[in-house]
Write a structure and sequence with these properties.
The structure is a single chain. The chain has 36 residues and is mostly loops. The model has no long low-confidence stretch (mean pLDDT 76).
Length: 36
């Protein structure tokens, strides 16, 4: 994992349809990746 804060494990979540929460969809965080 690379990113601005290497000492902490970042947490995130996946929203399948963000249009229900946002008028404009925010950009994806480039430091998060989806694990299967």
């Amino acid at each position: 994992m690379t990113g601005p804060r290497k000492s902490r494990k970042p947490h995130g979540y996946l929203i399948q349809d963000p249009r229900g929460l946002f008028n404009e969809c925010p950009p994806n965080n480039p430091y998060l990746t989806r694990e299967s």
